[in-house]
Structure formats: C-alpha cells, structure tokens
Amino acid sequence: MWRSRDVISARDFTRADLEELFETAKYMEKYAKSRLDVLRGKIMAVAFFEPSTRTRLSFEVAMKRLGGDVVGFWGAEGTSVEKGETLADTIKMLDAYSNIIVIRHRYEGAAKLAAEVAESPVVNGGDGAFNHPTQAMLDIYTMWREFGRVDGLNIGLLGDLRHARTVNSLLEALANFNVRVYLISPEYLRPRAETIDYVRSRGLKLSFHTNVEEVIGELDVMYVVRIQKERFIDPLEYEKVKGSYRVAPDMLRNAKKSLIVLHPLPRVDEIDPRVDATPHAKYFKQAALGVPLRMALIYLILS
Ligand code: NCD
Question: What's the predicted TM-score (pTM) here?
Fold first, then answer.
C-alpha cells in the first residue's frame, strides 16, 4: 500500500494505511537506537529550504538507522538556488542522485511540484501553512501508543489553528478515526473553512471554543501549537493574538489524570516549562517517536 508512494497531503492516506504504518513503527522502536540494515545502498536526499530541527534530524537518523545514506542541504545557501536555479531543476538533480526526496519549503504546493518533477518518491516535510503530513502521522501515532487506540478520544487543538500546517494535516488525518475534536483558539485563528468543510464531510465531530477552562475536563489529548508569526499576512493581527494562550500547571488542575499534552515543537511561550515535570507532558516523547515513525515510513516506501 505504501510502496513507491509520494507523501504530499494527509488526505491521501486511509485508516488502513495509517494502521499499517503504526504497526511497523512499533516494530521499528526496537531499532531506533541501533540499526536494522534493510536499506543498504539507498540514498535519501533532504532539501530543506526552511528552518527545521526535529523533522530533518529524525528523517536523517531514521534513514541511517535503516542502513541507508543521506545527502542534502538546509537553507538554500551554498546551493545553486542562490544563483537563481528553479525548484524544479534542483529537484531533478536530487532525483537523479537519490532514491527518495524529503522536502520542506515555505510555499504551499512546493512538495506537489517536486513530486510532479521527480520519479523517486517525494515526502513533504512541511510546505507553507497547509501540509505537514508526516507530523500528523507522528501525532496520531503518539496517541495510539499512549492510549492503545485512537477511536473514542477527545482531542483539543489549542493555539494558531489557522496558520499551523501541523494542525491542518492533523485534522485531515483524524478524519479517519472516530474522535471528537475541540478547536480552541481566538476566532481569527480558527482553521480555514475549506479544511473544516472537508473534515466535517468525512464525519469528524468538531466544536469551537475560545476558552480552554470550559473544556479542559473533557480532554484526553491537548495538542498545543505556537502562534505562527512568520505566516501572518497582517502584523497587526499577530500583535492582537500573540500570547493568547499559555498552558501552565494551574490550567491543568481540572484535567483528567490521564490527559496528555502534545506539541509538534518548537514551543515559544505557549507551554510553561513547569508543565514538563508533570505526567501530562508527552511532547518530548512525541519528538522521540519521530525516529521509529519515520523509519517505518521510509521502509514501507522503499522496501
Ligand atoms: C512544525 C512545523 O515546522 O510546521 N515543527 C515541526 O515540524 N515539528 C511546527 C512549528 O513550526 O510550529
């Protein structure tokens, strides 16, 4: 089901695809700190035109743990893009040099364009404000590992739900499951209407809230994202909403004992560091699971 596929949008993956990925990722956890030599001789090209820490490193580590090699760049500095080379030409070269390409770009649609140009599979490591499908897979994988299931969970999404590509992809991927989603944000930062229409048409149960306290007691998962400053078109709008939410220990007083707090990271100030020491904090575990999850993804595509 995964073989040779591009990974561009979370909408392209079914529940069965995700379950196969999760089972494989669970198997890969045993090898996340060692080596499973199944992709020897294969090369991954990493083309990151936008900053990244976790996504890039976990893709690279995953490929190396599988016995493959990695080439690539981050930031266009030092590449021919600086001389004016087009994205399509850069991708054609990477395609010739490698077996799989992972791309991150500030513009929406860059990964799709790359997939059209390249014969090798292309994986979207985040483009623009809309798509970050592998992060969504990782987010749901973390829930599946923590609760042993996804169906039946009450999931709160908190923060900049409009510009965060992780939220958009997460909503699309969650539409495969029987969950309830609480969208908690200032009105201006609600997800795009197009996304809401899509997930509702797939039967996802949604409700809108501005106040965390109002729903905190119901949640099994609270997924927090930073206000995506770099994606605001109007800086005045940013000034209005910055610092709208901050998850602190007192906010969690009325939460279920089993509530888990997730965050794709990086965080700025939306989660008080004192939350890290509580049993609710699972965001560092989530980041760690990025390695086995991406090992599974690469393995399923390339093997
Ligand atoms: C996210 C991203 O780049 O979209 N980071 C990540 O991949 N873990 C989230 C963010 O930048 O806020």
Answer: 0.96
